[in-house]
Amino acid sequence: MPAPLDIDQLQTFVAIVDTGSFTRAADKVFKTQSAVSMQMRRLEERVGKTLFVRDGRLNRLSEDGERMLGYARRIIRLNNETIAAFDDQQLEGSIRIGTPDDYADRYMPGIIARFAKTNPNVELYIECEPSAELAARLARGELDVALVTHNPRERTSEVVRTEPLYWVTSMNHTVHEDAVVPLAVGRRSCNWRNLACTALDSAGRDYQVLFTSWSATVVASAVLSGLAVSLLPECAVRPGMRILSPADGFPSLQPAQIGLMKRPGAPAALVNAICGHIAASLDNITPVGTDEKPMSAMSGSSSRRELRRPDIDAVPAW
């Protein structure tokens, strides 16, 4: 029977990827850099594959390293869930979580399911509102944790996921070809609404805001009905939507970043536990364009997102 993988080595491997370097990973896992290097050498020997490849002064995850990363995260998560299931000192109490509804629809089912398995005595209160309101409510002490759109100009949050922001229209309609583009967007204070208007102004496209709502469901309904164009993060793209490209007259957009906010003074054990589950869950979401493809009818182009291998700096050569 093959010898099992070493959990400690896998945790160090994940720490290297998450921090971007052996040096920072060593600090995170409380080991010397030479010990971290030795662990990675032993892990490569154990699986018989090269996990890092040299690229100039940097190292990147190899294809086998990318494969290993997914397995490593799942093994570590299952290990932690198993330990928690037999922990007599399980967390108890309640925690209040806020999230926009587009993030809730895509992410919260998996987060809730995993958290409930390991923390059955914790009650979760989940509320859906726009990021700006969530930040205000957290400041008033009405929420403990908020999953928000990262916007450093307006609020401080810890980035836990980055994903593309897309122009979308209906697969079965041509409203995006109208001389005056009809838009379905959030209210005037919505960052993405302002981004959409600025981008179309820069591209010289005429537009008119026809639908305004904080609800991602309402915006998606307007798009799917062929009544408007909108811009949505990857997580909110639905079957029946077509992703528009510069070839369609819609400029490329900067990616969206998703951040976590924590209320100062909130129960540290509960907050750290749920934030850890959220960060791990978002990191393991399969990107649209790999196994889950948004419906796209772009002629001569593809909505598939190119997945780049992470750069790992300061990796010793062995």
Keywords:
Arc Repressor Mutant, subunit A, 5-stranded mixed β-sheet, about 325 residues, 9 helices, D-Maltodextrin-Binding Protein, domain 2, disordered C terminus, 3-stranded antiparallel β-sheet, alpha/beta, single chain, about 20% strand
Characterise this structure.
The protein has 318 residues and is α/β, with parallel strands linked by helices. The chain has three domains: 7-86 and 305-312, Winged helix-like DNA-binding domain superfamily/Winged helix DNA-binding domain (Arc Repressor Mutant, subunit A); 93-162 and 256-284, 3-Layer(aba) Sandwich (D-Maltodextrin-Binding Protein, domain 2), CATH 3.40.190.10; 165-248, D-Maltodextrin-Binding Protein, domain 2 (3-Layer(aba) Sandwich). Helices cover 39% and strands 22% of the residues. It is built from nine helices and 13 strands. The chain has helices spanning 7-19, 22-29, 33-47, 63-85, 101-118, 131-139, 191-203, 216-224, 268-284, and strands at 52-55, 58-61, 93-99, 122-128, 145-149, 158-163, 165-170, 180-185, 206-212, 230-233, 241-244, 256-262, 311-312. A five-stranded mixed β-sheet has the order 4-3-5-12-6, sandwiched between helices. Strands 1-2-13 form a three-stranded antiparallel β-sheet. Strand 3, helix 5 (101-118) and strand 4 form a beta-alpha-beta unit. Helix 1 packs across helix 2 (22-29). The longest helix is centred in the N-terminal third of the chain and has 23 residues, at 63-85. The two termini are 29 Å apart. Residues 287-310 and 314-318 have low confidence and may be disordered.
